[in-house]
Design brief:
single chain, 8 helices, 7 strands, binds zinc ion
């Protein structure tokens, strides 16, 4: 499976099956041969996305081919990240219930287990109100998207206050790995917090040692999630 449109459709459905995307949220893939282009679905619920819904965009987030529906309103996020981060090959924006408590509180989203270490040393936090005042919270303007990209910096995850998260990866499989395990880490942290005990996140040294993703576990998890998608009869 190497066709980028098929991969993007698969990632939409996989991330829905694992509780990261619901009716909203989106995932994109940089063009494998043209770094100035990326693939993203039109505005459609992720579990319903098929390869025919995925279209090619330039880095201004304009479509370069006819779209079979309304364009994704927050597509500027994807173009802004690909422009600012040449190492990023895949991007996901989501509002997973697992991370929302950390988007609406001052409780830091820290890595608390080995897989949570894939967040990197720290999870950046971006608040649209800081630079743009009252908005409807959707990121639809280029300057807003550039601001999110600046907040992501050299990291892999940025929390968007009162909105959701943006996750990046050096490959689609790495992105999916980080997005799913990031939600698992958030769930574990929130549960421990709710239990009222002391929470001990990873040490600085542990964060540094777990941040680097290895290919074997990333591939293993992709196969596992694809199998789960297949058993659900949802592979596009
Ligand atoms: Zn959003």
């Amino acid at each position: 499976m190497t066709d980028p449109r098929h991969l993007v459709a698969t990632a939409n459905r996989l991330l829905n099956n694992e509780g990261v995307l619901d009716a909203f949220g989106h995932v994109s893939l940089r063009h494998p041969d043209r770094p100035d282009r990326y693939f993203l679905a039109v505005a459609k619920a992720p579990p319903l996305v098929g390869p025919q819904d995925v279209i090619e965009h330039d880095l201004d987030s304009e479509p370069v081919e006819p779209a079979p529906g309304r364009l994704c309103s927050e597509r500027v996020l994807h173009g802004a990240i690909y422009r600012s981060r040449p190492d990023v090959m895949a991007v996901c924006h989501h509002h997973a219930p697992a991370i929302m408590p950390f988007c609406i509180s001052d409780i830091p989203l820290e890595p608390v287990n080995q897989l949570g270490g894939t967040f990197g040393a720290a999870v950046a936090v971006w608040d649209s109100h800081d630079a743009f005042g009252d908005t409807n919270l959707l990121v639809t303007r280029q300057d807003e998207a550039d601001s999110v990209a600046a907040s992501l910096g050299a990291g892999w995850t940025v929390l968007m206050k009162r909105h959701g998260a943006l996750v990046a990866g050096r490959s689609l499989k790495e992105l999916v790995f980080r997005a799913v395990h990031g939600c698992d880490n958030a769930r574990a942290l929130a549960t421990a917090r709710a239990m009222g005990g002391h929470v001990s996140p990873l040490t600085e040294g542990e964060r540094a040692l777990t941040a680097e993703l290895r290919e074997a576990p990333v591939a293993r998890c992709w196969d596992y999630w694809i199998d789960r998608l297949d058993r659900a009869g949802r592979v596009p």
